[in-house]
């Protein structure tokens, strides 16, 4: 068996609030293999957002180890974490996080600027991923000229553009109606079939059911980690 893509052991994260310490994650052990499709679930305050920030290298743990694609990222400094984020992780957020006065094409190409690609390489690759999410005819549109579902497709294309190891989606359908949500989740199924590892953070059971494995957090611990019976 190859090494897992994500290998977390005894990961803890606490925060200081004045003289008080808030223990948010209390020792998480987790392995995720390449090509898995995982949903992270849990009520408000369960630690799922904190865990997502650690998985996405947006934050570092108080203690414990996090090996991502063979690299120990738990002790890395900000510059190294930024590079890992740009190369290894594609983010999709509930609020889309697009630049408002910028075309879909330029929004998608943005991560490639930081990765040092030339303009022609960026445009070619951004065009390719926009076609993959069925937006080839909307490349010159700005976000305010697009529907919510189209904006989320642009955000997904941007997440895919650097060919990351992991797509990390935080409540990706939170701002969408149910019909559009189904379309967007269908797109995540396609992305997963194409070989991407997908980690989905959600509090909605009907969104989690798309994943093949469901990890539930409660009070900073993993309460359960089970295969989704619908995908066995």
Can you describe what's shown?
This protein has about 230 residues and is an alpha/beta fold. It is built from 7 helices and 10 strands. It has helices at about 50-55, 80-90, 105-115, 120-130, 150-160, 180-195, 205-210; strands spanning about 5-15, 20-30, 35-40, 65-70, 70, 90-95, 165-170, 195-200, 215-220, 220-225. The strands form 2 sheets. The protein has a 6-stranded mixed beta sheet, with helices on both faces. β9 (about 215-220) and β10 form a beta hairpin. The chain starts with 5 loop residues before the first strand and ends in a 5-residue tail after the last strand. The relative contact order is 0.19.
Can you list the strand order of the major beta sheet?
6-7-8-3-9-10
Mean pLDDT: 93
CA-based gyration radius? 18 Å
What is the terminal separation in angstroms?
20 Å
| Stretches with pLDDT under 50, minimum 5 residues | none
Q: Please trace the helix and strand order, writing H or E for each element.
A: EEEHEEHEHHHEHEHEE
Shape by Cα distribution: globular
* Helix-and-strand structural type: alpha/beta
Sheet with the most strands? Answer: 6 strands, mixed
Number of DSSP strands? Answer: 10
- Strand residue content: 25-35%
Oligomer: single chain
Tally of helical segments: 7
Helical content class: 25-40%
């Amino acid at each position: 068996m190859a090494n897992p893509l994500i290998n977390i052991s005894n990961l803890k994260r606490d925060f200081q609030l004045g003289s008080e310490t808030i223990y948010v994650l209390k020792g998480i052990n987790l392995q995720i293999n390449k090509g898995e499709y995982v949903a992270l679930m849990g009520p408000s305050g369960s630690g799922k957002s904190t865990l997502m920030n650690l998985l996405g290298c947006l934050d570092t743990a108080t203690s414990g180890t996090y090996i991502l694609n063979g690299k120990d990222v738990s002790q890395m400094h900000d510059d190294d974490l930024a590079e890992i984020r740009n190369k290894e992780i594609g983010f999709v957020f509930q609020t889309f996080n697009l630049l408002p006065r910028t075309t879909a094409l330029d929004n998608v190409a943005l991560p490639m600027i930081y990765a040092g690609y030339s303009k022609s390489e960026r445009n070619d690759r951004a065009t390719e991923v926009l076609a993959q999410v069925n937006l080839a005819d909307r490349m010159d549109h700005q976000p305010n000229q697009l529907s919510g579902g189209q904006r989320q497709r642009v955000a997904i294309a941007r997440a895919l553009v650097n060919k990351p190891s992991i797509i990390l989606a935080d409540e990706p359908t939170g701002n969408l109606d149910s019909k559009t949500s189904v379309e967007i989740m269908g797109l995540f199924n396609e992305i997963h079939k194409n070989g991407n590892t997908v980690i989905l953070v959600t509090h909605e059971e009907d969104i989690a059911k798309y994943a093949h494995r469901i990890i539930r957090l409660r009070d900073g611990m993993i309460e359960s980690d089970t295969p989704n019976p619908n995908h066995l």
